[in-house]
Design goal:
Blueprint lengths: L3 H25 L4 E10 L3 E10 L2 E10 L13 H13 L7 E4 L9 E5 L7 H6 L10 H13 L14 H15 L4 H12 L8 E3 L8 E4 L3 E5 L6 E3 L1 H9 L18 H10 L7 H27 L7 H6 L2 H14 L2
Antiparallel strand pairs: 1-2, 2-3, 3-5, 4-5, 6-9, 7-8
Helix pairs in contact: 4-8, 5-9, 6-9, 6-11, 7-9, 9-11
C-alpha cells in the first residue's frame, strides 16, 4: 500500500501540470508559456496549485483551486467550486477583500471542477500572524479590520440559483449532537456544553450570507496593510452574522495566544467596533460568545470523530489521530467558557 501512494501523487501532478500548460494558452493567448507550477496544499478531495505564465499581455501569477474527488452538492456540507467562485465575485463586487477570480474551468480545460484566482501576496499561517515580528506594526488593528471585512460579506445578496444551506443555532446543536451520540462516547464536558447552549440559544435574527469558516488560517494578511484576502469559501452558507464572528474567536484558532480572543491577535471590542463602523448591524457580545462556545463544541465533536475513524480502521491517515487528540483542548476551552458564562 505504502509503495503505491507516491506513484499516484506523481501521476496526479503530471496530469495537472499538463492541464495548466493547456490553460496557460487559453488564458494567455497563442504562444503563452507556463513558467511555474507547483502544488501548495491539499487534502483528500481538494488541491491548491500556484502557477504562472508569460502571455500576450505579460506575466500572470495565479492560483488554481481544484477538487480531485467526486462531489455531490446536494448531500455535502460544502459548496461546489463554481459556487465558491460566484460568491467570491459577488462579495468582491460589494467591497469584500477577496482574490479576483480569473477563470472558472470547464470541460475544455481538462482539470475537472476548478477555478483560477489572481495570486495575492501575504501570509496565512496563524502561528506567524500572532507571533512573527513582521506583523507587530499591523497586529493591533487586525481585529478591527476583520470586523470591517465581514460587513461587505454579510451585506452581499447571495447570487440567484446557488444551493446555499441555511443554518441557525438550534439546527447546529441538533446536527452535532446527533453526530456525537452516534459515536457512543460519553464525555461530561461535551454533555454539559450541549445542555448549556440549548438553554442559551439567542433569539433569531435576519439571516445573511456567511463565509462559514472565517478564522485565522483562512485569511491572508499582509505585514504592511493587514487583511489582504479572505480565502476558502467552501463552507459558505446563510445564517446568523455572529456565527462568523464567534468562529474566529474560538480558542482553537488563536494559535497559542488565548489572551487575544479574536484570532490570537485582537480583542472582542475591536472586532465589534470595526463591524459597526463599516455599517454592520448591532451585535451583542453575548451572541458572539454563544457562537464561540458552539464553535469549540463542534470542533471538539469533529476531533472526536476523526480519532474514532482512525481507531476503527476507517482511515489510516496519521493526521486523524493527531487532530483527534485535540478534543481535550476543546474541553478545556469549554470549561473556561462555561465558568465565565455568556
Amino acid at each position: 500500500m505504502g509503495s503505491t501512494r507516491p506513484r499516484f501523487r506523481q501521476v496526479m501532478e503530471l496530469d495537472v501540470r499538463a492541464g495548466l500548460e493547456k490553460l496557460a494558452g487559453r488564458l494567455g493567448g497563442e504562444g503563452a508559456k507556463l513558467t511555474e507550477a507547483g502544488r501548495l496544499s491539499g487534502g483528500a478531495s481538494m488541491e491548491t496549485w500556484a502557477f504562472a505564465f508569460e502571455g500576450e499581455n505579460g506575466p500572470e501569477r495565479l492560483i488554481l483551486r481544484r477538487r480531485s474527488a467526486p462531489f455531490d452538492e446536494e448531500t455535502a456540507r460544502s459548496v461546489s467550486l463554481a459556487t465558491e467562485a460566484k460568491l467570491i465575485q459577488a462579495t468582491g463586487a460589494n467591497g469584500a477583500r477577496v482574490p479576483k477570480v480569473r477563470h472558472v474551468c470547464d470541460d475544455a480545460d481538462g482539470l475537472g471542477e476548478a477555478y483560477v484566482m489572481v495570486r495575492v501576496d501575504g501570509e496565512t499561517l496563524g502561528k506567524k500572524i500572532v507571533g512573527d515580528p513582521r506583523f507587530d506594526a499591523v497586529r493591533p488593528g487586525l481585529a478591527r479590520q476583520c470586523g470591517e471585512s465581514l460587513v461587505a460579506i454579510h451585506k452581499t445578496p447571495p447570487p440567484p440559483g446557488l444551493n446555499l444551506k441555511t443554518v441557525d443555532g438550534v439546527a447546529e446543536l441538533d446536527r452535532y449532537e446527533e453526530v456525537y451520540r452516534a459515536t457512543g462516547a460519553e464525555r461530561p464536558i461535551l454533555e454539559l456544553a450541549f445542555q448549556y447552549l440549548r438553554r442559551h440559544v439567542p433569539e433569531p435574527v435576519e439571516p445573511t450570507l456567511l463565509h462559514g469558516d472565517f478564522r485565522n488560517g483562512n485569511i491572508m494578511f499582509d505585514p504592511q496593510s493587514g487583511v489582504a484576502a479572505i480565502l476558502d469559501w467552501e463552507l459558505a452558507h446563510i445564517g446568523d452574522p455572529a456565527e462568523d464572528m464567534g468562529w474566529i474567536c474560538t480558542n482553537s484558532w488563536r494559535f497559542g495566544r488565548p489572551d487575544r480572543p479574536v484570532g490570537g491577535f485582537g480583542d472582542y471590542a475591536d472586532l465589534l467596533a470595526g463591524y459597526a463602523a463599516a455599517g454592520g448591524r448591532s451585535i451583542e457580545l453575548s451572541r458572539v460568545r454563544f457562537w464561540q462556545m458552539l464553535g469549540s463544541l463542534r470542533w471538539g465533536v469533529m476531533c472526536l470523530t476523526m480519532y474514532l475513524s482512525w481507531r476503527d480502521g476507517i482511515t489510516r491517515s496519521v493526521e486523524r489521530p493527531m487532530i483527534g487528540r485535540r478534543v481535550s483542548e476543546t474541553e478545556a476551552d469549554l470549561v473556561v467558557l462555561l465558568e465565565e458564562g455568556l
